[in-house]
Amino acid sequence: MKSLTIGNNKGGVGKTLTGFLIMATLVKDMGKKVLVVDNDAQHNMSNILTDNEEKKGKTELIYEQSLAAGELICKTHIENLDIIPSGICLTATELAVNTMAGRELIMKNWLYDNAEALSAYDYVFFDCNPSMNLLNINVYHAVDSIVLITDVDMDGLYGIEMFMELYYPIRSRLDRSAGDNIKGLIVNKYDEVTKMSKEFNEHVRHPEFAHSDLLFDTMIHDAVAISETKLTRNNIDAKKNPRAYGEIVALIEEMKERGIL
Amino acid sequence: MSGPNRFSDRLKIDRMKAYTQDTTVAEGIVQNEAHPSETLAEEQHVDKKDKLRKADPKGSASENKNVANERIMAYASSKQRKVANSVTLSSDVVTAINQIVSQLKEQGFENTNKSTVMDELLREKLTDLGLI
Question: Using CB atoms, which residue from A169, A183, A202 is nearest to B1?
Fold first, then answer.
């Protein structure tokens, strides 16, 4: 089982949707089994994968009660894609765990304690909100891989820089022996027709860009087909949108090359 | 694509300001396009990306950790991240230094300790160029 998340301190760059598309493709077209843990009180991922309000609000039970995985996992409408959904109550969870000793290690310990149950999955994907709050620190420190993502925007790049400036000192303090688990950088919402996209691509692929080595060759183009998946609650139709689908597949292959998937 | 790049211009300026405390970079020093450090930066970039691709999380742990940990060490240490190869002298300064070295050779200083003379000449030249 490999664990991963997609991160950026800037909101709206495509963390949730890109994560959903990657996981849905792995499940539906590559025969994998995936568990999604929604770590975001906004529960956008839970909205895609569940339509039952009663099912939501389980992630906080990891932090507050360390309930076993078996008691929290819910099936979704996509076979072999399960979820531990979150709810608005997750906003209060950070306050609840704030005074706990070892508060940054709750999720890491939960993965350890539930290793056997989670071994049934090929991947556990965590969906986080755009901040370096206590719950996200739990996830970032616990996962095998963090993949950063940016859209074609100055603020997206600033978000990445802010992510690293905040995260690395925390990582180093929590565990001196832990290595760097940031393993990739996705460019999202790219539009080769615009001058801005071309300048952005030139800038981030230049060796002078501090994180150009993290970049994936594959860029995700801005496409209605991708946004529509939130409405269809399903993967991209490969026949109707071959380019969008092909980019997700190519990205998955690159992530496999780096040992992320 | 050639020509000005608005992302690079904006971010380079911001980055230069952020690095002022940790480097000896004076304001206004820009990358010399002909400087060999750009080639070195490209080589290092290709090398790093290649190592990231080949990194096996389960095997060759120490080698992979060394490559992957460069970034975490740079951010987590008390000083800011390294500027590495992004700070070079402008072509004016490079030319000035080369001229001074040539003058010193002509004056027979090639095999002597010319640091004091060099300092004085350099100081003069850099002052003339408005760099110090």
Answer: A202
pLDDT at B120 over 50: yes
Q: Which of A199, A255, A257, A260 to mutate to test the interface with B (most CBs of B within 10 A)?
A: A199
CB-based contact (8 Å) between B72 and chain A? yes
Task: With beta carbons less than 8 A apart as the criterion, state whether B90 and B30 touch.
Answer: yes
Contact in structure between A118 and A70 (CB atoms under 8 Å)? no
Please tell me the distance in Å from B94's CA to the nearest CA on chain A: 21
Dmax (CA) for chain B in angstroms is 62
ipTM of the predicted structure? 0.73
3-class secondary structure, A200? helix
Q: What is the enclosing helix (H) or strand (E) of A169?
A: helix A154-174
Residue contact B55–A180, C-beta within 8 A: no
Chain B contact set for A218 (CB, 8 A)? none
Which residues in chain A touch residue B49, judged by CB atoms under 8 angstroms apart? 212-213, 215
Locate the DSSP E strands across A116-231.
123-127, 145-151, 182-190, 215-221
pLDDT given at position A7: 96
pLDDT, tens digit (0-9, with 9 covering 90-100), for B44-94? 555 555 555 444 444 444 555 555 577 777 776 544 444 333 334 556 656
- CA distances in angstroms from B95 to A55, B32, B105, B125, listed in the order given: 71, 11, 15, 11
Instruction: Please state the separation of Cα A153 from the chain's center in Å.
Output: 19
User: Each residue of A142-183: pLDDT tens digit?
Assistant: 999 999 999 999 999 999 999 999 999 999 999 988 889 999
Which pTM value belongs to this model? 0.73
A165 touches chain B (CB under 8 A): yes
Q: What is the pLDDT of residues A32-58, one digit of tens each?
A: 999 999 999 999 999 999 986 666 789
Half-sphere exposure of A67 (CA within 13 A, CB side): 13
